[in-house]
Each structure stands twice: as C-alpha cells, then as structure tokens.
C-alpha cells in the first residue's frame, strides 16, 4: 500500500499536468466573447425574426418559408455562427414579427437576429444594436396621379397614411409639427393596410420607403393610376437588428456582411432580389443599385446619420 505522502505527491502531479495541458486554452465560458453566442452555444438554438410580407427583403414564399434579401444575408450569418459555436446542427427557430413587435423582441432578447426592413436610427439604438448597413432607401409618397400630390405641402389639411411603428410615420408627425400642415395622419397595421387606405380614398397619399412602394405597386391591378413622388423626404439605412451591448456578436455579424461586400458576393445577392423575377409571383423590381449603397459596399458603415449617405 502506498503511503499517504506518496498519494498526495501523485495527486499534485496529476493536477499539475492538467494545469499544463490547459495552458493557452481558455475556459469554455471564455472561448466566446459574446453573451449571445454563449446562449446560442448552450441552448443549441439561434432565433431569427422575419417579416411575412415585406418583399423583396423578408417575406414568405409559396410554401410559407421566409425568403428575401435580408433573410439571405442572415443565412450567411447563421453559417458563421455555426462555425463559431462549433455546432453544424444548430437549430434555427423562426419568429414572425411586425413593424410594431420587431424592436421589442430584439430588445428583450427574444430574437438574436432581426432580418427585415428596419432602419438604423439613434433613437432605436437606445434599445438595440444594428449591423453594418445592408441597404439604403428613401421615404417618398405614393398617391393617385389624379390627386396631383408632389410634396408634403400638397397634403396640407388632408389625410395621409403610413404604417404603425415606422420611421415614415414619425416623419409625418414631425413634419406636421414643424410645418404646421394640419395633416390627418391615418395608421395602417402593415404596409398593405396602409395602401388600402389610399386605394379606398380615405387617405390621399401613403408615406413609406421607396423600394417598398415600388414592390407594393407591382401588386396592384392598376399601377398606372398611381405615382411615387420624385421628392425624397428622408434617407433610411437598413440594417440587421441585434441585441444591444454585445460587441462580440456584432463583430461577427459585421464581419460576415463586410466579407460579402469585399468578395463581391453582395452583387449577385442584390441582382437576385432587386433585378430578377422573384417568387412566388415572378415579379421584378428592375431596380439598379443606388449610388448611396455602392458607397456603403466600398466603405462599410453602421452609421445612423442620414447625412452620411447623401
């Protein structure tokens, strides 16, 4: 039988060996410099928020699967997350959100990535973070040609619609206050609801981001009866919504997006969703890439300042 001193010596040597074997290998909790990534690793689940009817960015195909430009960018991010957490079988949980629920669900940690049509603003940064800019839109007015609506001033004292919890409806309220326009602002629960207010005559114009207006026009039976204002009222830098304060997770997401820009792969993704026929109806926006977005690709930014994109 070995003496107690011999046993203690062997135990000490065993602990020393374990310690030496662990040198240069951080503890499991330190291997990921991100609360979000650690949560994803420990649960085996990543949660992606999508929109059901915001083509071509985030919407449902004929089989009710989320697809679109923003969703495809997020798919690249998910593959990078799988590699980072060393789990090729990571479960993807999909959560449908609306313009009203998207930001609260990011803020309270219910979703890890919000892949839709959300504008990065300084006000919104108080509750969530944003990736590098993924698209640049502008707010314009959709109206019936016969109404002769060209500017916000043409709507003085008249009804105008937009969608709940969007920067477009904030624009209307701010313009109404600053310019004393006397607008009657009507609120749609989603974009199609807002357009219906215009179609029915309850509103004389619908304010929304120009790319979404173009997509909505394609779905109307009489698109020639409507026009989009030449004047743009705001610049809208779209980005992927992220949990606030998680620098490590944002770095991973931004790295993926910057990689798409630097490799040129974003060009093919853009053509697929903005210049070709898209499912389920085979409609195409035929929308060339804007100069503002070309500048973003050449020099990626996560700026919320509209002036940065002018």
Instruction: Summarize model confidence as the mean pLDDT.
Output: 91
What is the count of helical runs? 10
What gross morphology would you assign? globular
Query: Termini distance?
Result: 83 Å
Structural class: alpha/beta
Beta-strand segment tally: 12
Secondary structure: helix percent: 25-40%
Molecular structure report:
The strands form 3 sheets. Strands 1, 5, 6, 7, 10, 11 and 12 form a 7-stranded mixed beta sheet that branches. Strands 2-3-4 form a 3-stranded antiparallel beta sheet. 37% of the residues lie in helices and 22% in strands. Helix 3 packs across helix 8 (247-263). The longest helix has 18 residues, at 4-21. The relative contact order is 0.16. It contains 10 helices and 12 strands.
Write a concise keyword list for the protein shown above:
310 residues; 10 helices; 7-stranded mixed beta sheet; 22% strand; alpha/beta; 12 strands
What is the compact description of this entry?
Strands 1, 5, 6, 7, 10, 11 and 12 form a 7-stranded mixed sheet that branches. Strands 2-3-4 form a 3-stranded antiparallel sheet. Strands 8-9 form a two-stranded parallel sheet. The chain starts with a helix and ends in a 12-residue tail after the last helix. It is an alpha/beta fold and 310 residues long.
